[in-house]
Design a protein that fits this description.
Radius of gyration: 19 Å
CATH class of the largest domain: Alpha Beta
Helix content: 25-40%
Structural class: alpha/beta
Oligomer: single chain
Strand content: 15-25%
CATH topology of the largest domain: Metallo-beta-lactamase, Chain A
Number of domains: 2
Shape: globular
Bound molecules: zinc ion
CATH architecture of the largest domain: 4-Layer Sandwich
Strand order of the largest sheet: 1-2-3-4-5-6
Number of helices: 10
CATH superfamily of the largest domain: Ribonuclease Z/Hydroxyacylglutathione hydrolase-like
Largest sheet: 6 strands, mixed
Order of helices and strands: EEEHEHHEHHHEEEEEHEEHEHHEE
Amino acid sequence: MKSRIMVFERPLLEAADGPVMLRVFVVAGDDYAVMIDTAMIGFEEMAAEAIAAIKQQGRPLAMVINTHAHHDHIGLNDWVKTRVPALIASHAWGTRWIGDADQNYREFVLAYPDLIQDSEELQSTIRATMGPGTRLNVGFFGGERLDLGHARLEMVDLSGHLPGEVGVLVTDERTLIMGDAFTGLTMPFFHSHVRPDLYRQTLARVEGLVRSGRVELVLSSHLSPWHGPEAIYGAIASRRRELDGLDAAILEELDGESRTLADLWQRISQRWGKAVDFRGLNMIDSHLADLCRRGLAEQAGRWYWRV
Ligand SMILES: [Zn+2]
């Protein structure tokens, strides 16, 4: 059986173990095609290749499915829409961030104005990579099905990296196409997650799909594919170790010592050898909230301590 999945990629940045890619995907059925993610400004050539492939297949583009509302996955939504008519779909959580690029930037990058100030570098690497916002036409939560004509898709809730993210399971090919749900562990910054609780559920959900035989291959936006149960279970286990390791490191820093978010952000980023940036800040704050919710830490004002 010929695969219905087409992959378009370019190098994005260098990580400790080699280049990190940026990809978009096209799944073409007999009746319709979908494009998964649009990449960002600077990657027009790659998006154009995907559009050309869709046009060559001669199928209408049913929708663009954004895996999640980060700049490098949605940045060319408007660019694509002006070249080929398409509905924009994503996890329903992404409505505001996909619809309003300024709000996206403010809430993603500048959520802690006393700790992160706007800069030319942030403007050029994040804000300038997003075109105008596009209306989210279809909001998914996971479980929705699409039949493209001999290519059946099922949306899978893969939240955790953001509060809302979806993956696309191409059921006949036992292939799960994801954005950043398996976060990169070797990038120079924390690739990050902002809902540790949902991230653990996502890892369990993918594990269940592999165990039931519904997923044999995982493709992602940035990382190398994981082929076969052993590789996928390995990817899940290393993300669980990262989640557990971050909890343990934060609790260690809070042992007999009250600390602020700013202090923990610096210390944990340094311990991990990661850039002290907005992604790490969002992530450490989310772990603190999760530890407090689980009764392992407490907060009063700016201060956190271990219980
Ligand atoms: Zn992302």
